[in-house]
Amino acid sequence: MRLRQLTSLEPEAILALSDTALTDALRPVGYYNVKAQRLQALCHWLVQTGGLQALMRQSSEILRQGLLSVHGVGPETADDILLYACERPVFVIDAYTRRLFGRLGYIAGDEPYEQLRAGLEAALMPDVVVFKEYHALIVEHAKTVCRTKPTCICCILRNECAFAATHA
After folding, report:
1. Predicted pLDDT of residue 168
2. How many CB atoms lie within 10 A of CB 121?
3. Is there a contact between 17 and 6 (Cβ–Cβ < 8 Å)?
4. Closest to 145 (Cα-Cα) out of 120, 132, 121, 163
5. Cβ contact 82:67 at 8 Å
6. Contact 113/75 with Cβ under 8 angstroms?
7. Per residue in 53-91, pLDDT tens?
8. Burial class of residue 63 (count of CB atoms within 10 Å of its CB; 0-12, 13-18, 19+)
């Protein structure tokens, strides 16, 4: 929010900010010095590759490889960008997904990122709207019910949940 108030969210505008202005704008999000460096690296990459419109013409795999080449962009961030900014049917695996599916007993929890992503993408139809909605529902459920200290008694999934069965 503070960054948006300071400047447009265009890569060139972000790169035009001083390091101090950028870190100050990011201060509320925590780890602001690291995030400022990573945001600058992503913006440099975006500008060097011709901007978002040029990237949108690339295949998802090439675009993902490019994103992963940017300092500080890992698989989850790359997939977030692909799904939410580029409208590509890529499922995002995050801590919420691991927590929920681990507690339900669907995964062990230590599987590699790519294995989980491929499994979910194979289980669901490759649909951007479905992936966004499913991911949003997982995040909401994990934030409100299946928290670090879960409230299993309130959980609609408790009858199907391996964790709730052993911790009720």
Report:
1. 65
2. 14
3. yes
4. 163
5. yes
6. yes
7. 899 999 999 999 999 999 999 999 999 999 999 999 999
8. buried
54/62 Cα distance (integer angstroms): 12
How do residues 91-115 score in pLDDT, each as one tens digit? 999 999 999 999 999 999 899 999 9
> Running DSSP on this structure, what letter comes out for residue 29?
G
Domains in the chain and their CATH numbers? 1-88 (1.10.340.30), 89-168 (1.10.1670.10)
Q: What is the pLDDT of residues 63-72, one digit of tens each?
A: 999 999 999 9
- Dihedral pair phi/psi, residue 26, rounded to 5°: -90, -5
Residue whose pair of structure tokens reads 């194979």 in the numeric block: 122
Which pLDDT tens digit goes with each residue over 112-138? 999 999 999 999 989 999 999 999 999
C-alpha span between 144 and 156 (Å, rounded) = 12
- Surface-to-core class of residue 148, CB atoms within 10 Å of its CB (0-12 exposed, 13-18 middle, 19+ buried): exposed
Band of pLDDT at residue 160, cut at 50, 70 and 90:
very high
Q: Give the closest residue to 104 by CA, choosing from 145, 72, 73.
A: 145
